[in-house]
Amino acid sequence: MKKVAVLMGGTSSEREVSLSSGKNVYEALRSLNKYEVTAVDVKDDSLAGLPEGVDAVYIALHGGWGENGGVQAALNARKIPYTGPGVLASAIAMDKIKTKMVLGMKNVPTAEWGLANRDTASSPLPLPVVVKPPADGSSVGISKVSDAADWVKCRDAAFAAVSSKEADATILVEEFVPGREFTVAVVNGVAWPVIEIVAKGGWYGYEEKYNSDETKYPFFEGAEAEKMQKIAVDAYNAVGCRGVTRVDFRMSPMGRMYVLELNTSPGFTSHSLVPKSGMKTGLSFAEVCDVILSKADYDR
Ligand SMILES: Nc1ncnc2c1ncn2[C@@H]1O[C@H](COP(=O)(O)OP(=O)(O)OP(=O)(O)O)[C@@H](O)[C@H]1O
Ligand SMILES: [Mg+2]
């Protein structure tokens, strides 16, 4: 029987969500009766709690060291296969600015963008724009600027969420894309059914993500959905992903599609979107985890 460790918890702001994802994955893998599964609560950004002789690691960490290439590098060094992308793809996807650069280079459509520093006096793009810290997830520090009078306040709010204290730190400024929001799970190079995110008020921020039960997640089908799946696979390949990645989109009222971001360690709670999409293909929650685990690898 293969020995599998599920890493969960971690030290990022997403610790609680990760404990929930990890518990679900742990129970799902155990229910398959084909693995010897250990749950590991990661408390200090190290592999200290990892048992000896593990054949594969299921990464259920979100944010920080668990998603930015840190745990991936530590596992590479020990030649232990793990779920999800390797070091470089994880590091690129974690940084929204690097992601824009790579996707642009590979002609994957994204919204127009620019950069601002701590004293940039006005938006580098025509309003409305969205300002974002490059790397600190969960919509913290993200806001829409519609009125030039709000620029300084929104710029400063984004910098307040930037963990780097470097004087030359930058934030991402992105053209606001009106319209609808979608997400596509790409697993082992194949796009799963597209899910629309219908948030009240059209903005899927922190409140909508974690505190609102008014957000709806219908499946989206047809020719446009297929086009989106193709773009999702292009984005996955452009960044060099493997295993699982969730690609988030906006679609304008004209039907133009833009990749917003890639999540290389997406949620696995009972209401998370990757398992929901996999279950639409006929898999059980446990089988979704198993398909992802089957392609566990390290950077060779
Ligand atoms: N360019 C944009 N145009 C319109 N809405 C946007 C744009 N960028 C972000 N948003 C809205 O803000 C939300 C959060 O933005 P984004 O997904 O880039 O960061 P995040 O959710 O903080 O990152 P993570 O998913 O890693 O937590 C999006 O889901 C979307 O609703
Ligand atoms: Mg997001």
Secondary-structure arrangement, i.e. CATH architecture of the largest domain? 2-Layer Sandwich
Work out the helix count: 9
Q: How many β-strand stretches?
A: 13
Instruction: Tell me the number of structural domains.
Output: 3
**Largest sheet at a glance?**
6 strands, antiparallel
Bound compounds? adenosine-5'-triphosphate, magnesium ion
Distance between the termini: 25 Å
User: What form results from the Cα inertia axes?
Assistant: globular
- Tell me the fraction of residues in β-strands, as a range: 15-25%
**Structural classification:** alpha+beta
Q: What do we call the CATH homologous superfamily of the largest domain? A: ATP-grasp fold, B domain
What percent of residues adopt helix (DSSP H or I)?
A: 25-40%
Can you write the helix and strand succession as a string? EHEEHHHEEEHEEEEHEHEEHH
Radius of gyration, Cα only, in angstroms? 19 Å
CATH class of the largest domain: Alpha Beta
Averaged pLDDT: 95
Explain this structure to me?
This protein is an alpha+beta fold and 300 residues long. The chain has 3 domains: 2-83, Rossmann fold, CATH 3.40.50; 93-108 and 177-283, 2-Layer Sandwich (D-amino Acid Aminotransferase, Chain A, domain 1), CATH 3.30.470; 113-175, 2-Layer Sandwich (Dna Ligase, domain 1), CATH 3.30.1490.20. Helices cover 31% and strands 22% of the residues. It has 9 helices and 13 strands. It has helices spanning 15-31, 70-77, 87-94, 96-105, 151-160, 206-210, 223-239, 273-280, 285-294; strands at residues 2-9, 35-42, 56-59, 113-116, 129-132, 143-145, 171-175, 180-187, 190-191, 194-197, 219-220, 244-251, 257-263. Strands 8, 9, 10, 11, 12 and 13 form a 6-stranded antiparallel β-sheet that branches. Strand 12 (244-251) and strand 13 form a beta hairpin. The longest helix has 17 residues, at 15-31. The chain is globular, with a radius of gyration of 19 Å. It binds adenosine-5'-triphosphate and magnesium ion. Magnesium ion (MG) binds at residues 248, 261.
